[in-house]
Every structure is written in structure tokens, then in C-alpha cells.
Amino acid sequence: SPVNNTNAKFTADLWHLLSKENAGENFVFSPVSLELLLLNASQDYTTEKATLKYATVLAIDKCFPVTERFTSITKKQFPDAKFFNAAFSRDGKKTEAYINHVVAETTKNRIKNLIPNGSLGAHTTMVLVNALYLKASFKENFTSTAIADFYDKDNKAHEIEFLEGSFEDLPYYNKDGFSMIMLPYIDEHFNLYVAINSSGSINMADVIHQTLAQKIDFESKEVDVKLPKFTMEYTADQIMDHMKMLNVRDIFNESTANFKALLKNPKDKVFVSTMRHKAFIETVSPFVESTKYSKIATARATKTIKCWT
């Protein structure tokens, strides 16, 4: 994983909350883009074998006085960011179109219209957007495709296309009521984990935590794999509530939010008012591609910051 294993608990806890909200339904999320947003981190990673790209856009209203220190630090932390001043009251739609273009271009058009029409206007003072795109090739490619039955949660069969392949020395685990394989990518920084809750009683949040913390004792085995081809897109509109449940609270509270490093006028007080998260993943032979985005916007008139992640 390109993210340090210290994010294991955060990922597992957030998965647990989202799984309750989406009981019996498919969903996908990106702890990477969420942590990048919260930690103000940004880094592109590109080799001949894999591409993980981040796009960062920071727009501040011309009438919003921010400190020189904030500007300096932001440019240092986001050296490749598109950083500019905007007149949101006059050019809100133009700025929306520009940011949406940057995100669509970075994510190979997987994420479009990130910022809804009419989101930016006279009430907006700052927008911070982070989007990421991952494309990587498996170390051992699937060799064929086939149409077969896939059974949903109600045990109803659906004919779909599967990727098929025989893999030598594949990391494999089958204990404690669940089985799992790890499909390595050519680039050793990335792996795809596929787990089956065979007993139906396993807490998958614990499985995710153990996996990211590298506590699963895989064995190398020859395994025949049939992986369903799928495309999944999910928007978590209540992600701010989930962040609060994970003790990320101060920035959402008008009384406790502290953005003194941002504001030149000490009388101005802002806090995060809205957060949204969206992710997309697609399995296509021989690649798996995924995209995610994050966005923050500040509103001076209402003294709030709006966030989409």
C-alpha cells in the first residue's frame, strides 16, 4: 500500500461505519484520499509498472484575506497544485467548470462533475480539491474470460463475465471462517486483496484491520482464480457524520474549529460545514483502475467550510 500501515485502524473503522449504512449493498471508499485531505498530504507516484496520480486544486476568493504563512506552507505542501485566486461571486460557474475539468482529466474521465452546478458563488471563499487515480498491472495476468453465474446476497444467479487464471505461489489464507487471496501487482507497492466471508459470521472490519496491519499469515499456493469483472461507484454523502464518529470533530464545530493559520483577520471564524466522498473502481484485464476525490470549500458569509471528499 502507498499509505503507511498506521491508517489500518482508520480504514477498518470507517469501513465498519459504511457497512452499517449500506447493509447488504455494494460500496467502495478511499481512505487514501480522505487521509490526504485531513493530513494535507499530496504526492504523485509513477513508475513504468504503476501510476498513482494526485491532482490538487486550491482556489481562494480575492476578497478573502489569508495569511502569507498559509500561502507559503500550502505551496510547499502542494508543489504541483493549481493554486489561484478567484472571484467566486462573479466567476463561480467558470471556476466549477475548471476544477471539474482538472479532476476529470486526472481521473481519465472516471470522475466527472465533482462540484455540482451552483455550488460556488458569493458565499464561497476557498475551495480545496484532491483527486487521485490508480492504474496498475497484475504481476501474473489473468489469461482468459468466461461467462458464468454470479450469486447475489439473495442467492439469485446473474450471468456476468469473469476473469480467469491459474496463479503459482499466490498468497492464500483459509482459516477462522474466511478465505482470502492477495493478487500482487508488478509494482510491489500495490496489492489487491479478495476475501470471502465463508462462515457469514466474521467481522470484516477486523479482517481489513488485520490485513492492513500485515497480521494475516498467508501461505503460497497454486490457486485457480475466477474474479468477476465489475464497476462500482459510490458516493458517501454523510461522510462528515462518519468523521465525527471517528473523533474528527473540532473542524466541524464553530466553537472549536481553529483556522488561525489560515485567516489574516482574527475576527473571521470559519468551520467545516459539509463533507462528501466519492470513489470509483473498475476491474479490467490486465488492469485494475480506481479513482477518488476530495474537496474542501470555505464560505465566508456563513462562516463555514464545505468539504467533499
TrEMBL record:
Show where the Serpin domain sits.
Answer: 12-296
Q: Which SMART domains is this protein grouped with?
A: SERPIN
Q: Which GO CC terms are listed, alphabetically?
A: extracellular space
Q: What InterPro entries is this protein classified in?
A: Serpin_dom, Serpin_fam, Serpin_sf, Serpin_sf_1, Serpin_sf_2
Molecular-function GO terms, alphabetical: serine-type endopeptidase inhibitor activity
- Indicate the family of this protein: Belongs to the serpin family.
Q: What is this protein called?
A: Serpin domain-containing protein
